Structure formats: C-alpha cells, structure tokens
Amino acid sequence: MLRWAAVFFVISIIAAIFGFAGIASAAAGIAKVLFFIFLAVAVIMLLMGISVGRSITHH
User: Fold this and answer.
1) What's the total number of domains in the chain?
2) Its domain of life (predicted)?
3) Which domain holds residue 35?
C-alpha cells in the first residue's frame, strides 16, 4: 500500500510539472489517503504485535 501511495505521489508531481492541475491534485489526494491507511494499519499491527508478545512471555 505504501508503494501505491508513492506511485500516486510521483504521478502527481509529474502532472504538476506538465501543468495538469486536476490530475495532480487527484493523484496527490489518492496518495495521501493511501498513506494514512498504511499508517493506520501499521500502528494496528504494531499494537497487536506488542500485545501478542506480552501474552506469549507471560505464559
């Protein structure tokens, strides 16, 4: 998912350079949404990993 966010970010940069403002803003918006979804999933997985690690070490 982070890879797709980076791809859309690059597309938005290229579109901005060539003057396609609508495409650039849409691609940047998609990249931003994907990045925040990736961030949320990463935090959830980190918290799950910490909780699983604690339950394994206490038994």
Assistant:
1) 1
2) Bacteria
3) 2-58
